[in-house]
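The following block was generated as part of the benchmark described in Methods. Ligand: arginine.
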Amino acid sequence: MKKVTKIFALLLVLALALSLTACGGKKEESPVGAVEKIQAKGQLVVGTSADYPPYEFHTEIDGKDTIVGFDIAIAQAVADSMGVELKIVDMSFDNLLMSLANGEFDMVIAGMTSNEERLKTTDFSEPYLMSKNLILVRTEDAGKYTTLEDLQGAKGGAQTGSIPFDRCVTYCGAETSVGLAKVQDLIMELQAGKLDVVFLDYMTVLTYAAVNDNLSAVDVNIPSESKGYSIAVQKGNTELTEYINGVLEQLAADNAVEGFVVEAQQLAGMEE
Ligand code: ARG
């Protein structure tokens, strides 16, 4: 009887020892880091709103619809640095941060700037490029809008959920401001005379003005407190944010972003 108890006790000790090793072993593998997780799935999933040339937009390459732009080139550099494939998910700008919070992508790059409101729910990388807002008007109206005061009461349009939309409401007035989900619809309404001014980021304004004779870019000195465009990541994912900052630093050291911009402008139909 005694012998049996002894063996049982020994077995128990052995079992405990084994489970401790198992525990210890597990601890070494986990917690799996944010970057390791992306590497394990082999894909960096990036959310964007591909209606914003030259930041991100659709174009035909070898007869195939493709999303290109300098933001996409930056996202590609992050994916390359991780050694994974880049997967782009295109959706309305207004839904990007919610979908990011829901875990639908690893990061968002969309000509997006951080502000206090967005920082409540989202983390942002260091800025990779300066930001500025311009307005787009019909060429025949270009002389009409030279100062912010001239905008009061104008029929203004901007993308829903964007910072330019807030500016539009501030300077045109809430009654005459319209938010639309897609930038291309804003351009159509402007050309059709249903809108008088469209608020967008400067490079998008410059692109549309360059490729459409009937549209012109105007700088009315819209004030901005933004530091520049940043990549958005899920709140609290410091590891990924820091990793991205490292890639951005490297790109800056190589002056790579300027090259991406020039290439994207050419793809968007802007001549040098
Ligand atoms: N810079 C503006 C913002 O952060 C607008 C960006 C719009 N981007 C786009 N891909 N449509 O709100």
